Amino acid sequence: MGHATTTADVAVIGLGVMGAASLYQLARRGVRALGLDRFAPPHDHGSSHGETRITRQAVGEGTLYAPLVLRSHEIWRDLEAATGEHLLHACGGLIIGPVDRDSSHHGKPDFLRRTVAVAERFAIPHQVLSRTEMAYRFPQFTGLADGDMACFEPGAGYLRPERCIAALLAQAQALGASIRTGTGITAVEQHGGLVHLTTADGSRIEAPRVIACAGPWIAPLLGPPFDRLLQVTRQVLHWFPVAQPADYAPGCFPVFIRMHGAGDSDYFYGFPAIDGAATVKLATERYDHPVAADSVDRVVSPAEQEAMFGAHIHGRLAGVLAPAVRSSACLYTNTPDADFLVDTHPDMDRVTVVSACSGHGFKHAAALGEAVAERTLTGTSRIDLAPFGRARFG
What we know:
Blueprint: E1 5-7, E2 10-13, H1 17-28, E3 33-36, E4 53-55, H2 66-83, E5 88-89, E6 93-98, E7 104-105, E8 108-109, H3 111-121, E9 127-130, H4 131-137, E10 148-153, E11 157-159, H5 161-174, E12 178-180, E13 185-191, E14 194-199, E15 204-207, E16 209-212, H6 218-222, H7 226-229, E17 231-241, E18 255-259, E19 267-270, E20 279-283, H8 302-313, E21 326-334, E22 341-344, E23 351-355, H9 365-378
Parallel strand pairs: 1-15, 2-3, 2-16, 3-12, 6-18, 16-23
Antiparallel strand pairs: 4-11, 5-11, 6-10, 7-8, 9-10, 13-14, 14-15, 17-20, 17-21, 18-19, 19-20, 22-23
Helix pairs in contact: 1-5, 1-9, 2-5, 2-9
């Protein structure tokens, strides 16, 4: 006996933060939306986990991102009011780097100056701190170089990713969206005005519009040109103990990004000791070892913990101790220029691909979901998504 075919106005593949945000915005607009995920979100298989995610509105990645994060903060606050959950913690954020030598972050050179420029252009409250001012206000940071300075943004802080996704999905369902977990999609095909999805168990789903937010599974699912444009990398998060937890509590210690060399991996970032813990989450980024989502090594070795401490933390954070208490692996899906990829599929005009947030997407996700929902339903969105199209790659 064959499987029944499920229908929806819009189907969303993948319910990490981008898919969850899109589903929520579709449901807000009264659309009969269906969200699909091969796991049970919020989960730790993709890119949307790990307890905390930095959010900052003075985004050195460029002016095209500022409208997204500014709108996202509004949406997160609205979600908090609707759910009673505390999702966005504005503990302040510090971008630290050299002004007299090369540095880069997320593929953008001179990231610190770019951060200040975005803050000035969009009237985002901020303070530029000299090395001396930074050492006085935040003595936790040690080993500062003569040419170091910082941009402090009091409204920056961290999001709670698992809580954010749970809140988005709960609100989407409350507004009428359907969710199917444990449902992997194996094929996407468009025939005329309908998109046909095949699931791993052989059942069928049909919808006139599909939003594909499958993150590291986008390229295996959709093939060309995404197999050429997207590269998945394994990233590692560590929780290191601190000698004096009060020194690293929110209110005393901000989220931070600290660049100490010229390359995209010559930096590390971190968070306060949240929830009364005696640990701080610290990480860097690596782009030199592409992986496949289904075969990535999820175990973090003691050698990786030691390398993180030795290369980045030792001599730069007072009272942070080795070894790490725990570590976790996650996945980034990256484009060649480290900017987002949001566009219509070249061969299926009813499929919108939302992927490759290249390690800096979570802070923008709430507004990106809104813009994608608007674009899917009306063909246009209040925040322009054209800069994230495929055309820039030729």
